[in-house]
Design brief:
7-stranded antiparallel β-sheet; alpha+beta; 4-stranded antiparallel β-sheet; 20 strands
Length: about 450
Amino acid sequence: SEEEEGEATKTMAHVAGKWAAQLAARAAVTAKDSLQTNGRGALTVWKRFLNVHEHQGAKRMSDFGVNVPPGIVAFSVPEAVEAAKKMEQGSGEVVVKSQILAGGRGLGTFKNGLQGGVHICKVEEVEGLAKQMIGETLVTKQTGPAGKPVNCLYVAKKMQLQNEKYFAILLDRGSGGPLVIACSEGGTSIEDLAEKYPDKIIKVPVDINTGITDDQAAQIVEGLQVSGSQSEAAKQVKGLYNLFVESDCTMVEVNPLAEDPEGNLIAADAKLGFDDNAAFRQKELFGLKDDSQIDPREVAASKWDLNYIGLDGEIGCMVNGAGLAMATMDIIKLHGGTPANFLDVGGSAEKQQIVEAFKILTMDEHVKAILVNIFGGIMKCDVIAAGIVAAAKELELKVPLVVRLEGTNVEIGKQIMEESKMNIISAVDLDDAAKKAVAAIS
């Protein structure tokens, strides 16, 4: 009835808004910390930006005149040994850093038992360490229990650094442009700094059209309490800003931004994020993408132009449209189930994309049932139905499959599924589909 449809619309609007807020909050946390956890009970968040390894970021910063510790990337044990000989420069020691796209490396543990993903060591110790690090898996607080593969090491010069500071540039909704955040204290998380030194944190919004001014750079340098040359420090600040703008960054976080004995600012460690929307004009940057560090389901989804987010649940979802996808997940939860993912196939998916979407869903061994919820507008229900049948046959699905179709060519779509003789559970509406999916795994 019209009354029931009206109530359904209100319900969907409510749950869609709720999930939108939750996903936005998760994305905000992820964007700041570059987190990607994949243990059960943790959220794997699909990020809208490219992350690069430390050695790649250092090269990029150096290209913009930013001071970084000298270092050489090594993909093998012999390369690591040679790099150490070049980087020790009379001190007899170097820093050996595992290269993974996650934080907490220093306190991480390799699955082979080696403690720590970052080591300050003597040159003669590099070979033994490299053998235990390259090709192994490092587990940190940010990787989840599965860890991430260490394919290379960054062998860097051991720097005599002091006066650690914090520096970041983010996109700020409030000011509608880049926001520089700086603190004269650093070396720990910005949350800890905000708690311990709230009066030392400065925020400087920058007009994206004007760019950073001399006065703003001087204000930031003053806030950083630089002991060396103020003008040289201002050049470093401007270099980091130029990196942010010209590289289409979503984030530049330098922690710590420290000083050498002469008072020069050094970007000792940094996290850089780049906007995926700029891939067309940042081809060199996006050529650095390391798929080995990313959830294979996300990699597969991106290749087929599908939007995928892994969640901790048992009911796999395939939906067209982000709002409908979020509503579907909330209604599953409402009826006592748990969604295993967010998977939006968009409004123009072809048959093969649907098949690939099913492959991605079935890659998760925790999925006990699959719910397909399609409201066909541009997307035609018969195309979806053909893809569903092809996927069910090709993959020989072992889990219950619940399908709700509505919209363009819906009767043809239902006929295709019925004539396929496949074990497909049909649902009349979203509420019915969610109930049947939950019941299927009970």
